[in-house]
Amino acid sequence: MKYQSTRGGVSGLSFIEAVMMGLADDGGLLVPDSIPDVSGELESWAEASYSELATIIMSYYIDDIPHEVLSELIETAYSAFDHPEVTPVVPVGDVHVLELFHGPTLAFKDVALQFLGAVFEWVLERDERSINIVGATSGDTGSAAIAGVRGKRNINIFIMFPEGRTSATQELQMTTVLDRNVHNLGVIGSFDDCQSILKETFSDISFKNEYALAAVNSVNWARVLAQVVYYFFAWYRLGQPGQFDVCVPTGNFGNIFAGYIARQMGLPIRRFILATNENDILHRFFSTGVYSREDVLQTHSPAMDIQVSSNLERYLYFLMGRSTARVKRFMKQFASDGRADIPMSTRVLDDCFVSGVADNDKTLRTIREVFQQTGYLLDPHTAVAMHVASTYRDDVSQLVLSTAHPAKFSEAISQSGTPEVGHSTLDQLTELPTRKQVIPADLDVLKNTIRELSQT
Ligand SMILES: *Cc1c(COP(=O)(O)O)cnc(C)c1O
């Protein structure tokens, strides 16, 4: 399988080349040249374990990692999960919930980042080189990225977070990781300050090359690919229904786009129910065809508090008949005007998406009601999906994706009026030693820190 950019400036990459490039050099996103149809094979994979199924599905997209190696990398990545099924499916009232939070940081990003970390380590060892991963986080992504690469050879990771502005648990999930290759940087400033010095660091091309800077953000194709697997896995656990609906709590459109790929491959998903919080740029896009940026609001589901959905560009590429010229025009207009639209006539051709919004009140109410009715406790992100799913219920079975363990968001849980919940992984964090460095929001200080610490 080869990969090309949604903007047409890069093509002919292998899987590993695509993973190491991350964002395409022309500013676009990397997509496979074709999507294989596996509908004829589905019957024969029913007995596969999670890791076996992952190896089968990912092999369609990876031809530059030997099969036995790929299978080992996948096995290692998912051995860090605390459930034998990796992503179990559980019945909750009238729906089924796919639990994606059994990884080391209790959020769904582990599914992708445990795999990406394993791929990085193998490639770097093979090529005898090293990288410095640099990232900024407002909370969840940082800990999942750190968990994916801690202790790995040839990789340093530097994660900036706004000092004193993440939750105590979020900070501890990062700073209690004492592996030598992990560097937590508390930046005196806001998350925007962190992001802007991150951007500046990457745009200094000579520094970027000298220190082999790498990113692990959600546009990396390996992350999307790892997420395709659990849509198939869930279908088997549902008993292979003739069709089903999937409801996904959505921010950057990475998770739901992976489902879209699974559907293109022949998985009988009838439709996607896209769920957002009050940051509803995607709901507005799917209901009107207009993609327009607004200010970010803080909600109970912070991992979905985003302005711009970076993975949407991959979907636009398919929606626009793989026309890189049309994608480029759309993204250019959005970058300059903060707004772009596609004619509804185009959109209507693709009726596999419906969407809805749950505001803060509905989120808390859903946590409370579902708990009272079923005894199952939802985290606020999953509650957004559960609410929106309820507005689209009919006689087709619904699968709701659960993206975090409720204990990660104990404040919202207590505000919802449900009993407090803990998790042993989080409860023990307060006992552990921590390490971080506090730095000013200053480009030169960041660069010096990378220079110094990457040598050790
Ligand atoms: C990142 C995240 C999301 C949003 O996923 P996208 O792929 O960005 O749509 C939802 N819930 C949780 C808990 C997350 O960490």
Instruction: Give the mean pLDDT.
Output: 94
Low-confidence stretches: none
- Enter the CATH topology name of the domain at 89-104 and 224-422: Rossmann fold
CATH class of the domain at 89-104 and 224-422: Alpha Beta
Strand count: 15
- Give the bound compounds: pyridoxal-5'-phosphate
Please list the strands of the largest sheet in the order they lie side by side: 3-4-14-9-10-13
Q: Specify the helix fraction band.
A: 40-55%
CATH architecture verdict of the domain at 89-104 and 224-422:
3-Layer(aba) Sandwich
Give me the secondary-structure category. alpha/beta
Q: How much β-strand is present in the residues?
A: 15-25%
Figure out the total of helices: 19
The multimeric state of the shown protein is single chain
Radius of gyration: 21 Å
Shape descriptor: globular
End-to-end distance: 38 Å
Task: Characterize the main sheet.
Answer: 6 strands, mixed
